[in-house]
Automatic annotation (TrEMBL):
The keyword Transmembrane helix does not apply. InterPro entries: AAA+_ATPase, ABC_transporter-like_ATP-bd, ABC_transporter-like_CS, MacB-like_ATP-bd, P-loop_NTPase. This is ABC transporter domain-containing protein. Keywords: ATP-binding, Nucleotide-binding, Transport. The lineage of its organism: Bacteria, Bacillati, Bacillota, Clostridia, Lachnospirales.
């Protein structure tokens, strides 16, 4: 059974007098332990598709299934529980709280986790991941003192701290230099290969896309497989 499946999903938005068909009849099955890349020009609907996959927004038509569970018909509480249980998110602007420390930001998802660990267990896990991403010395620093690359790596740790099965990454290397991009992609690859996580990446970077198991192009809301 697919871990994540979107079936004939469409989503449109009104832009003044125009209707923008951001996602148009998209179907995609994603299995545990694979890394998927979705590429395409700006405004092609990539972020919208990622938000549909993560049940952040609802489709106009079609269906999203998470480990066989149909997302439609769920109330807001049920959708929030499903998101917290299954999905870790890496967003373009990091979505970190500037005045809080890196550790405090990372711990936010644990407040809502259904399967809670002890504080010491969380901190041991966080320090282990931070060492891999070379930011263990930044955990006590406030976010406003961190560089863009450091912020992105903290955001990645936050996306993994509750051991979610699926990580949805919107341009995870978009603001990083080559060295930091290499560190981030190595970490995501290890999550897939060693821990059987599923990673879906939206990216403009073809070098990032080439490191994924399958690549799809989204243009004009239409998703097609592609080879790089």
């Amino acid at each position: 059974m697919e871990l994540l499946s979107v079936q004939n999903v469409s989503k449109s938005f009104k832009d003044h007098s125009y209707t923008v068909h951001a996602v148009n009849d998209v179907s995609l099955d994603i299995h545990q332990g694979e890394m998927i890349a979705i590429i395409g020009p700006s405004g092609s609907g990539k972020t919208t598709l990622l938000n549909l996959m993560g049940i952040v927004i609802s489709p106009d038509s079609g269906e999203v299934y998470v480990e066989g569970q149909k997302a439609s018909g769920m109330n807001d509480t049920m959708r929030c529980r499903m998101r917290n249980q299954y999905f870790g998110y890496i967003v373009q602007d990091f979505a970190l709280i500037e005045e809080d420390t890196a550790m405090q930001n990372i711990l936010v998802p644990t407040l809502y986790s259904k399967h809670k660990k002890s504080s010491s267990e969380y901190r041991k896990l966080i320090y282990s991941m931070a060492e891999k991403l070379q930011v263990s010395d930044k955990l006590k620093s406030t976010v406003k003192k961190l560089s863009g690359g450091e912020r992105q790596r903290i955001a990645i740790i936050r996306s993994m701290v509750c051991d979610q099965k699926i990580i949805l990454a919107d341009e995870p290397t978009g603001s990083l230099d080559k060295d930091n991009s290499t560190i981030v992609m190595k970490c995501l690859r290890e999550l897939v290969d060693d821990f059987k996580k599923t990673v879906v990446i939206v990216t403009h970077d073809l070098n990032v896309a080439r490191q994924c198991d399958r690549t799809f192009n989204l243009t004009g809301g239409v998703l097609t497989p592609c080879n790089l």
